[in-house]
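Both lines are given unchanged directly below:

***
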Amino acid sequence: MSLPRREFLRRSAHAAAAFTILPAAARGANSRIQVACIGVTGKGHTDTLATAAAGGEIVALCDVVNPRRPELTRRKKAKAAGAGDTILDRFPAAKFFTDYREMLATHPGIDAVVVSTPDHHHFHASLLAMRGGKHVYCQKPIAHSVWEARRLAEVAAQTRVQTQMGNQAHAGEPIRRAVELLRAGVLGRVTEVHAWTNRPIWPQGMKAWPTPEPVPAGLNWDQWIGPAPFREYSRALAPFNWRGYWDFGAGALGDMGCHILDMPYWALGLGAPTSVEAVSEGTTEIAAPNWSKVTYQFPTSHLGGPVTVVWYDGVSPKEGVYRNPPPERLWKADFPTADHVFRRFDLLVVGDKGRMFFGRSRQDWVFKPEGLTAGFAQPPKTLPRVAGSGESAEGAMDQGGGPYREWIEAIRGKGPALSGFGQSGPFSEMVLLGNVALRAGRKILWDGKALRVTNVPEAAPLVRRAYRRGWELE
């Protein structure tokens, strides 16, 4: 007798929880890498096309909405020549699902999975895939909570699958060259990093949930909610503005921190911070703030000595004045206007020899004082480069370059994916700890080994969240 679908999915989830982890060192090493894509509208549309251009064979597609319903999605037109209007037209042979648990349990021959869902599904989709021996490319941050990021890194190591986080610029020339320069000592010992973004460009600071609306036909709302607490449907939540709600997203810090903080975290080998302190405007129980300043303290780095990392979001002009910018002492004497700093660069690195104004998608960086690099011996290129990436991985994605090619080539055994979960897991932990401090409302002291806030016991549910009934995995 066949099982009702709901009972089948419940049993599939429990079976996954007790799954015997499959080593996957050889899975997908042949020339045909069969890929399933979870979340195929909005950013997922781009991820799917780029994965195919990089050499992946798209055999399954999964989304909670029908991609032929543009009013339900943030659909992007296919850019490849001759492509149809939707992802279903582009890959007509791929089987379509609305529940990735069903897809992973029933579709044969999947070698690898791309996860482009809202943040609150990243852990479940990635964990289930890896437990099935499948390689994983997951959008940033790879998890919704600090504990989830730790667990994904552990399982990736246990299963030996090839993984990659979707912070695309990690694969580009600007970040890789800057990492080499900092490690070679162009700034001497680094003591401070200041990083900023104009995000959020979506609503944050909400004090109440939006008014419920009828669920549109063609949308599986229960599956969209997934492991999060159930909330009634509203256009104010989906398809995009979920980012500002703690139940589903990680706010501006979780969204952009994984891009902008990547270079210094990687270059300096920062590991786990010992403390995190946050100030903000508009942080509520349900929503991320309108702007925030988050200060991380690290005990040491590859270059020695402690490092302070300060994150500023909401850095945008209002009535001609930038709100929440880094201190003027760091930049005002060197640039004619704030626009020249905050629109051109992502961050400032301060060392005992000088300062570097850095942007992840360009190489016209500014070093201060003048002449800082004049006598500096340029270090060799020690990090591998990704074919087709050129100046920026972000500019190469449509041609199948950047992080997608690096991941596909890693599956084929041709070098590592350098934003794999062994690197991006601890990095995501660090970024998400900023949200723990924001929500705790006070400075937190962090024991990274024990995965515990030592001075605020009530912060434990912010480190490891609970799941809706039926979505428990461990």
Notes: Residues 14-21, 76-83 have pLDDT under 50 and may be disordered. Residues 5-166 form a domain with the Rossmann fold fold (CATH 3.40.50.720).
